[in-house]
TrEMBL record:
Pfam families: RIO1 (PF01163)
Alphabetized NCBIfam families for the sequence: prot_kin_PA4780
Protein family according to the UniProt entry: Belongs to the protein kinase superfamily. RIO-type Ser/Thr kinase family.
Organism of provenance: Halomonas heilongjiangensis
Keyword annotations of the record: ATP-binding, Kinase, Magnesium, Metal-binding, Nucleotide-binding, Serine/threonine-protein kinase, Transferase
Listed EC numbers: 2.7.11.1
Protein name: non-specific serine/threonine protein kinase
InterPro entries xref list: Kinase-like_dom_sf, Prot_kin_PA4780, RIO-type_Ser/Thr_kinase, RIO_dom, RIO_kinase, RIO_kinase_CS
UniProt biased composition (Basic and acidic residues): 271-283, 291-300
Catalyses which reaction(s): L-seryl-[protein] + ATP = O-phospho-L-seryl-[protein] + ADP + H(+); L-threonyl-[protein] + ATP = O-phospho-L-threonyl-[protein] + ADP + H(+)
Domain RIO kinase: 5-234
Entry keyword annotation includes ATP-binding: yes
Broad EC category: transferase
Length: 300
C-alpha cells in the first residue's frame, strides 16, 4: 500500500521495509501491519494530542515519575516546551509499559522500539500474518470463557506485581491468538503505588473482564477478584503465583486451626507443582486453566 506520511521517516531509516495493510483504526492511534526486520510486525501511529480523547486525563498520570529533573520542571510549567515534553512522556509510557510487562512475563506484544511517535511491536496473529481477533470479535464456549478469564486475571495480577494497572482493560484491548489472551493498548497504564485512583481502576478493569466472560459463563458474574487482588497487594502479599478464590468476604467466624493447616499444606503443594510447570515453560492450556479455576472456587 502507499506509505502513510507518518511512517515515511521509518521507511527512510530502513526500520520498515514495506507497509502491508492498515488494521482497524482506534480512537487514539492508527495501526499498520508492516514488514520489518524480516518479519511482519505492527506499527502503531499515535494521533496528534488534540485528536486524542480521554486517556491523557490527569487521573492516569498521577504517580508517574519523570527521571529527568529539567524535563519535570518544564512539564510542571505549562509552557509550549513543557507541553511538548509532556506529550513525549505520554507517548513513551506505552513502550515503557510493554518492556516492563514483557520482562515480568505478562503476555503483551513484544516491543521493538519507539521512533518519531511510532511504536513498533510484535504482530499478534496467525502464521499467515492475519492479525488476531479482539475478544469483542469472538464467541466463546463456557469452558473457553472460564479458561481465558482465569488467564486474564493471572495477567492482571502479574501486571500489578510489576507495579502497573492497565486502566482501560476491556474486550477491545485483549487479543486472542492460538496460545490465549494477549493484552494490548497501554499508554494510559497507571502506576499502582503512586496513583490514588489505582484501586478504582483495577476494579473497573477486572469487573469489565468479569462482565465480558460472564456472558458466556454466567457463574463468573458471582466472582469478586478485584477486591481480593487489591487486598493482597496492599498487604504486600500478592505474587504472580498467588492462589485466588474469587470470593471476598470479611469472615468473622472462629477458625478450626487443624482444618486451616491442611488447606494451607494442600495449596502449598499444588503451588509447588505449578511453579515447577512454569519453570519448564509450560503455560496452562485453556482446559487446564478452567480446571484450575474450578478447583480454586471450591475453597470459597
Ligand atoms: N500488536 C498487535 N497485533 C495485532 N493487532 C493489533 C496489535 N496492536 C493493536 N492491534 C489492533 O489495532 C487496534 C487498535 O490498537 P490499540 O487498541 O492499541 O489502539 P487505540 O487507538 O489506542 O485503541 P482504542 O480505540 O481502544 O483507544 C486493536 O483493537 C487491534 O485490533
Ligand atoms: Mg484499544
Amino acid at each position: 500500500m502507499k506509505i502513510p506520511r507518518r511512517l515515511q521517516p521509518l521507511v527512510d531509516d530502513g526500520l520498515i521495509d514495506e507497509v502491508v495493510t492498515q488494521l482497524m483504526s482506534g480512537k487514539e492511534a492508527q495501526v499498520y501491519v508492516v514488514r520489518s526486520g524480516g518479519e511482519l510486525r505492527c506499527a502503531k501511529v499515535f494521533k496528534e494530542a488534540r485528536q486524542r480523547s480521554f486517556k491523557q486525563a490527569v487521573q492516569y498520570q498521577e504517580g508517574r515519575k519523570e527521571r529527568n529533573s529539567r524535563r519535570a520542571r518544564a512539564m510542571a510549567k505549562k509552557t509550549r516546551y513543557g507541553q511538548k515534553e509532556q506529550e513525549q512522556a505520554w507517548l513513551n509510557a506505552e513502550v515503557d509499559a510493554l518492556y516492563r510487562l514483557a520482562s515480568a512475563g505478562v503476555r503483551v506484544p513484544r516491543p521493538y522500539g519507539f521512533v518519531d511517535g511510532v511504536l513498533l511491536m510484535e504482530l499478534i496473529g496467525d502464521a499467515e500474518g492475519f492479525a488476531a481477533p479482539r475478544l469483542d470479535d469472538v464467541t466463546l464456549g463456557a469452558e473457553e470463557a472460564r479458561g481465558h478469564h482465569a488467564r486474564v486475571i493471572g495477567e492482571v495480577v502479574r501486571m500489578l506485581c510489576a507495579g502497573l494497572v492497565h486502566g482501560d482493560l476491556s474486550e477491545f484491548n485483549v487479543l486472542l491468538d492460538e496460545r490465549g489472551p494477549v493484552i494490548i493498548d497501554l499508554p494510559q497504564a497507571v502506576d499502582a503505588a503512586g496513583n490514588n485512583s489505582a484501586a478504582m481502576m483495577l476494579e473497573r478493569d477486572v469487573d469489565n473482564m468479569r462482565a465480558y466472560f460472564g456472558r458466556f459463563a454466567p457463574e463468573l458474574l458471582e466472582t469478586d477478584y478485584a477486591k481480593e487482588i487489591w487486598a493482597l497487594y496492599e498487604a504486600g502479599e500478592l505474587h504472580p503465583e498467588s492462589r485466588l478464590t474469587g470470593c471476598f468476604a470479611h469472615d468473622t467466624a472462629p477458625v478450626d486451626v487443624d482444618d486451616l493447616m491442611t488447606v494451607i499444606d494442600d495449596v502449598r503443594e499444588e503451588e509447588a507443582h505449578r511453579q515447577a510447570a512454569r519453570h519448564r515453560g509450560d503455560e496452562p492450556g485453556v482446559e487446564e486453566a478452567a480446571e484450575e479455576w474450578r478447583e480454586s472456587r471450591r475453597e470459597c
